[in-house]
Amino acid sequence: MSRRIERIDFTDFKIRSLKPAHKPDKDGKPIVVAKDYYDDRVRGLILRVNPEGTVTWRVMWYLSDGRTRVTKLGRYPVMSIAQARDKAIDFLRDPQKALAEDVPSLFQDVAETFITKHVKEGGLLTGDVMEQRIRKHLIPAFRDQEFALVRRASLVKHLDDTIKSPSMRDAILTIFRTMANYYALNLDPTEEYVNPVIRGMAKYDKRARTRILSDEEIVVLWRVTAEMGTFGALCRFLLLTGQRREKTNQFEWEHLRDGVWHLPVIKGAKGHPAEIKLPPLALEIAEAQPEIYKCPFVFAAARGKGAFNAWGQMTEALQDRMRQHLPHMRPFTIHDLRRTFRTKLDTLKPAIPFEVKEHAIGHAVGSKVSRTYSHYDFLPEIAQAVAALNSYVSNLVNPPPANVVRLRTKRSRQN
Q1: What homologous superfamily is domain 7-101 in, according to CATH?
Q2: Angstrom distance (rounded) from CA 331 to CA 145
Q3: How does pLDDT run across 129-182, given as a tens digit for each residue?
Q4: CATH superfamily membership of 215-397
Q5: CATH T-level assignment (fold) for domain 107-185
Q6: In CATH terms, are 7-101 and 215-397 the same topology?
Q7: Residue 189 reports pLDDT greater than 70
Q8: Residue range 28-35: average pLDDT?
Q9: How does the average pLDDT of the chain come out, rounded?
Q10: What is the mean pLDDT of residues 65-94?
Q11: Dihedral through CA 235, CA 236, CA 242, CA 244, nearest 10?
Q12: pLDDT at residue 269 above 80?
């Protein structure tokens, strides 16, 4: 039995009266589903009324083998009836050419294209975090707007009203600026677009940070992270190894062999040691993590098969717990754990050579010429430095028992 097609000569008045469809689910209960209405003037133009209330223009076209495909054109009423008919006619003249040249205009479509083309295909090291932030902070706010019509004032108001952390606010602002640049680069040269993000919109003080954790704060951090699951283990591991958060987050089980963490070279990523022999304290943390089926990461996300990604809310929770013990503690970031690692290396005795300390955290040392001719990796020395830092932290969080002084009794005089 062929499906009944309902053709309508669309007007704004008629569109306001259109409703989605109802059909029974597997239990026989009625559910609301999307319904397509076909234009009576332009064959192939479809208006879809979605259950959530949005109305979308689509066009149906044919492949060379006769199969049909449906492509989204835009949202109503952002795209008017006349605009939808004109765009459908232009599209149907050469669908393949139109698909190759088409630039999405709605914010959600631009965001999805950006995630696919720039984030995922670009192989960004922080791609998962960027995608998560776009889906959480940007798409829900501007989903149905034309991307080019997102104004500076509305963007600032949204960020100020919904994001408490200045650093997170500015991170989302940076992502939006990158998306806007991507959108502008893919526009037709005849179209004009001005990126709404300008100098001065950031609020976070980007001057070089000097925050490190004191010994007392390290002890409290170690205590409260014992009950914070994967995030707590990550914080401890970052403090003990001094590696960048993004590298540690991508730590996979196959990278751990015979107690040695082999850090893979990632395209576009900053430097790091080729490998680190993990001391017992750090190795115990890694090996204690549960192995999730089909998940390659040591520090896995709570859901799905990816790496841990709930940094923002968990960092706030960590500091709230620490302030219960240290009410006047200054705020810190996860990156400050890496700075703490490097600073504590300066205090250890016997002194560790400067080159070893810098190589331990993946910094380039010396001039470009010296790095061209010297390729020694300092791996044994790095292993010793990390082991010394682990011993230092271990003595802080698990202090050895106080020395017991045995009183000497007076010996009896021997004859």
Answers
A1: Integrase, DNA-binding domain (3.30.160.390)
A2: 37
A3: 889 899 999 999 998 788 888 999 999 999 999 998 888 899 999 999 999 998
A4: Intergrase catalytic core (1.10.443.10)
A5: DNA polymerase; domain 1 (1.10.150)
A6: no
A7: no
A8: 85
A9: 87
A10: 87
A11: -30
A12: no
pLDDT at 1 (0 to 100): 39
Residue-range domain boundaries for the chain:
7-101, 107-185, 215-397
Count of C-beta atoms within a 10 Å radius of residue 137? 20
**Cβ-contact 144, 165 below 8 angstroms:** no
Residue (of 335, 365, 366, 310) closest to 242 by Cα position: 335
- Specify the pLDDT at position 267: 56
Average pLDDT over residues 222-245: 95
Instruction: Say whether pLDDT at 404 is over 70.
Output: no
Q: Residue 344 carries which side chain, given as an amino acid letter?
A: K
Which among 39, 15, 54, 143 has a CA at the least distance from the CA of 88?
A: 39
